């Protein structure tokens, strides 16, 4: 185990929150907790201390599937941002958060902001053209 005790982060009960250096270590920690306590934990990258912590799967980034967009939708912008940080840290890709056009929450796309805007404009032009028919 390569766990470190972070100074800045405490659990809700006031104990220091266990921090992991990488998502792999955190995954190992989550496996251990699951085997030992039968509790599903999800690693997340902490904005506060920069380490990885575990949080109960139940409380982790609530998301649902958005059928019209056929992608994951996050309940709030904050949840999408949390997920984005994890993906950026893990995969080193840049993600753009946008509100679901069908009001199902928030989505992440790996498209660049420019590409996304271009696509939106193209869609808008298409629907305007369709209206004129
Ligand atoms: Zn922390
Ligand atoms: Zn959607």
Indicate the topology.
Layout lengths: L3 E7 L5 E4 L3 H15 L3 E5 L6 E5 L6 E4 L4 E4 L2 H15 L4 E4 L6 E4 L3 H20 L1
Antiparallel strand pairs: 1-2, 3-4, 5-6, 7-8
Bound molecules: zinc ion (ZN) (2 copies).
The site of one zinc ion (ZN) has 8 residues, from loops.
Structure description:
The chain has 2 domains: 4-59, no CATH class; 63-132, no CATH class. 38% of the residues lie in helices and 28% in strands. The chain has helices spanning 23-37, 77-91, 113-132, and strands at residues 4-10, 16-19, 41-45, 52-56, 63-66, 71-74, 96-99, 106-109. It has a two-stranded antiparallel ribbon. It is elongated, with a radius of gyration of 19 Å. The chain is an alpha+beta fold and 133 residues long. It contains 3 helices and 8 strands. One zinc ion binds at residues 66, 68-69, 73, 100, 102, 104, 107.
Q: Summarize this, please?
A:
The protein is an alpha+beta fold and 133 residues long. 38% of the residues lie in helices and 28% in strands.
Round the mean pLDDT to the nearest integer and report it.
83
The unreliable regions are none
Largest beta sheet: strand ordering: 1-2
Q: Can you tell me the overall shape?
A: elongated
- Largest sheet, described in full? 2 strands, antiparallel
Q: Which kinds of small molecule does this entry bind, naming each only once? A: zinc ion
* Structural class label: alpha+beta
Which descriptors apply to this entry?
133 residues, alpha+beta, two-stranded antiparallel sheet, 3 helices, 8 strands, binds zinc ion
């Amino acid at each position: 185990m390569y766990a470190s005790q972070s100074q800045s982060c405490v659990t809700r009960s006031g104990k220091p929150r266990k921090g992991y250096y990488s998502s792999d270590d955190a995954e190992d920690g989550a496996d251990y907790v699951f085997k030992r306590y039968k509790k599903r934990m999800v690693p997340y990258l902490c904005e506060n201390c920069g380490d990885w912590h575990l949080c109960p799967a139940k409380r982790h980034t609530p998301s649902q599937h958005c059928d019209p967009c056929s992608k994951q939708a996050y309940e709030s912008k904050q949840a999408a941002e949390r997920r984005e940080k994890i993906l950026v840290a893990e995969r080193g890709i840049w993600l753009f958060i946008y509100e679901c056009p069908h009001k199902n929450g928030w989505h992440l796309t790996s498209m660049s902001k420019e590409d996304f805007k271009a696509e939106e404009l193209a869609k808008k032009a298409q629907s305007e053209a369709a209206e004129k028919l």
